[in-house]
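During the second year of the project, the team shifted from modelling isolated chains to modelling whole assemblies. The rationale, set out in the original proposal, was that interfaces cannot be judged from single-chain predictions alone. As a representative example for this report, we include one of the complexes processed in the last quarter. Its constituent sequences, exactly as entered into the pipeline, are reproduced here:
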Amino acid sequence: MLKTEGLHYQYEGTESTLAFPDLRLDRGKELLLLGASGTGKTTLLHLVAGMRTPTSGKVELAGAPFSSLATAERDRTRGRHMGIVFQTTHFVRSLKVGENLALARSLAGCPPDDDTVMGLLEDLGLAHKLNARVDALSVGEQQRVSIARAVVHGPGLILADEPTSALDDQNTDAVLALLRRQAERTGAALLIVTHDQRLKDRMSDRVELNPTA
Amino acid sequence: MKAARLARRNVLHRPLETGLSVLLLAFGVGIISLMLLMQRSLTEDLDRNIKDIDLVLGAKGSPLQLILANVYHVDVPTGNIPLAEARKVMRHPYISEAIPLAYGDNYELFRIVGTEPSYPAHYEAELAEGKPFEAPFEVVIGSEVATATGLSIGDTFYSAHGLTDGTDVHRDKSYTVVGKYARTGSVIDQLLLTPIESVWGVHEDVEDADEEITAVLLKKKNPLAILTLPNLLRDTPMQVALPAIEMNRLTQQFGIGLQTLRAVALLIMGLSFVSVFIALFASLRDRRYELALLRTMGAPPRRLFSLVLFEGLWMTLAGIVAGLLLSRLGVVILGQVLSDRFHYNVTQLAPVAGEFVLVAAALLVGAIAAGIPARSALRIDISNTLGQGR
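Output from the structure prediction step:
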């Protein structure tokens, strides 16, 4: 599903270049990207997601070039094939919970499907929040809704940025289980980026990022 | 979800910021559209009532007052003139038609005008009921008079002295309604017409000077009439005034006030666009995460541009619609006031040509005011916006 080769990134106005290990992730598989802060793990996630263009190297998605696509085309491809859970949750505030999920489907080019939206919310124990304002959700609910939004269009690749860093052990397990269950449901690949050492014991496939000199 | 629909939701989600812009625009559009509507009513009305009257002969005094009193029947007359003297002008070879008017009385504040059949004929007034006035103290009433007073054929009434109040009623001679005109849209609708002799008859006991009239409406046969007649009248108590010129002068004096009002309205509109601009920019800063998020979910930059543009257009559209409704409400209220005070009907709600220009211009400027913030939405760096740390 995902393949990266020789990814390098140099921030504008800086001398040092971040070099990243090659990644390979197949459908139905999961990968943990572990690194302390300053190792460029969010940068790598954004490179994988096509939100940044690598200085050199390339990203392939489902066997096709991705990082070399033009911006608009990359946006559309990302929307269709990826679901991203960001570290901080953001929503379209003018829309209700259910509408935020429907919007994600619509932007990904999927036909409207109330049953999928409702089924997903039920699965996350949020069925009663379908018509709630996103501002009215608790932090935990917001995170669960943002996970729902990342999978509602059945993406082939789910990216999660620090999904557990703010959670206690119990909730860390719950969120990880949730991400895994959703990935399994659609047969998606799951890539988690974190500095949270607790996940190390819970995921077997992992890549550690080392601080650059 | 279409960008236009999401834009509408976003606009409705910020009612205060949106509301201020919409309110300002509504007032700007409203004032200008109200002015356009009133201007149409007034010019149509003024022109309809001048209707080929080239000159008005009357007592010396303010020429504008002479016109207002005798063509539009809204001001008091400048005085009376002897019929014998007036005849000299009426029979002048440069004059093709002369309609004498004599008045001084009212019925429930509607003016009773002594005249000849040529007067209603000039305004193409047709009888809806009854017969034309012939004998003294027979009156034919205008359509507004009939509606307002409830007078109908066969009714008799006493006139009240002067034009403005009903306290001093002539009890000796009563008028009889013999006919009613169909609506003409001209001053005839507001008048009670009777032979001149009736007016003389009522005032026989008050003034001994016989056969005086108030004014004569003149049509010229020869353009030289305009130059010749003033000289002819120099040593008489009479003057001629030109309705077209006097009304032009009046609307020009109006014009300064209207221009000021228009400038204020344009200023308000300008402010409203600045406000749309600021509201969008502020909301963009506030929502940069949201917009970046839309990008990550598959919306290309172009789509964010149209989203913000649509938000501006929705606000503009709401302001325009509210403004046009506001101006019509204004016309209805003003029309009520004017028809109560002056028996003038200005309530016309159909769009004026100028309003289409106004709407098009407002949409265009609204699009420009929204376009600049929309362009900045194109340049959002989604990685920097959503990423925290590297």
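The first helix of chain B runs from residue 3 to 13. The mean pLDDT of chain B is 86.
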